[in-house]
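Final report, results section. Input specification for complex C-07:
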Amino acid sequence: MIEEKGILFILSGPSGVGKGTVRKSLFDKDTDLKYSISMTTRPPREGEVDGVDYFFKTKEEFEDMIENNKMIEYAHYVGNYYGTPKDYVQKQLDNGNDVFLEIEVQGALQVKENFPEGVFVFLIPPSLEELKDRIISRGTETEEKVRNRLAAAKEEIEMMDYYDYVVVNDQIDTAVQTVQSIVRSEHCKRERVAIQYKKALERDES
Amino acid sequence: MIEEKGILFILSGPSGVGKGTVRKSLFDKDTDLKYSISMTTRPPREGEVDGVDYFFKTKEEFEDMIENNKMIEYAHYVGNYYGTPKDYVQKQLDNGNDVFLEIEVQGALQVKENFPEGVFVFLIPPSLEELKDRIISRGTETEEKVRNRLAAAKEEIEMMDYYDYVVVNDQIDTAVQTVQSIVRSEHCKRERVAIQYKKALERDES
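Structure output:
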């Protein structure tokens, strides 16, 4: 049997763009995707289960993992650590499961460094689209306002450069379908498929 | 308005794999795609319309176009030329239409040379999949037969290297959906989207 490895998909984008909503809707539709379980030092809340909601660790354990380069990404937030353990993700991928990571832009950049073979999807708000239209048409707004928006848009565009795909979140259903298309087509990328075939043939010859 | 350029998609694969069936089913579902109209020197049959079924040309006109590098690909077959005119494809792309080219492997390689920015999809038969399974399991066939199949599979795999995607045509509906996913996700590629945004912003500044 040829074991196809899973793919790590990273969904990110500016805050407020609706990453969580898209991710939830995607998981309702696609049960094959594994959502990456985060690791944290904050104590479990009632009903939270270790290894399901989070991996709960002590501060010492977490810092040990950081030091040993065992985190794909992490952040310190209101006195606690949050992050994605490398081992868990790698195990899922090795088992042929796709892993889906929904994460803030800053965390996504860390993932890009530690896991460049991931597929990075940038979700942008439709307001940027609108802004784009406004910018190129003759504007009726004050020059300063246009300039500020332009600056913000540019910052977002620079973030884009780290990503493989850009999806406009105008309608959740459409955005989810587009992300599903990306998942599907990434599995047909020649690099991935050809490697499998070649491995299969080599195995026969040896 | 930002005009998004169309994308040239090339569907190819070994003969008999079902390229035509997949293409027809795709066009039934997706009316936005433009099927590339071929150019030929063979005389029109009854009911065939110039510019709809084919672009009909004389031998001299066709050879003139070959000489002036105006064909994306062409072949000589039973005394007549057949090929894809560059101008027609480029005009469709400039108008924002995706163009879909279903073509034999030899023609696809010509397209690759003349239009490397196209998206190349390789359709493979499920029998190659089966073969692959057979090769890695203990075979009951004669050694020679296995060796011949292996050789054929290898030739096909080498062709794969020129392509961006590999789609297994096990079920037509599934294959068509996969091709649709590829079309959709290619439009979200960051390189394409980012260029549009950057152009829009530059236009505003100038």
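Chain B touches chain A through 39 residues (CB under 8 Å). The domain at 1-33+98-206 of chain B is CATH 3.40.50.300 (Rossmann fold). This concludes the modelling results for the funded period.
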